[in-house]
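Example record used in the benchmark description.
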Amino acid sequence: MQCPNGCPSPMEERKEEKIFHRNGKPIVISDLIMYVCPDCGQESMPLSSARIVEDILNGKVKPSGKFTAELYEVSLADLWDKQNRFGLSPILEG
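Model output (structure tokens):
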């Protein structure tokens, strides 16, 4: 599979961990097959993985365990402050 961004290297199949949201709550799906471009990092989900995610999000698959992690929220004000501190141009104007 070629990268949709036109990179010269073929995309590589990898098993990855992804976070999705169901009913406003995060869920983690591990060992999800994804195609990843080694040049630019673009990811593409094959149809077989998309069907698995769909079944999980629709409650057709039971979870294999629980996962707890710390949550960090970044506000636009935080981003603006960091950009100004490092002399970067703002990401949003207006």
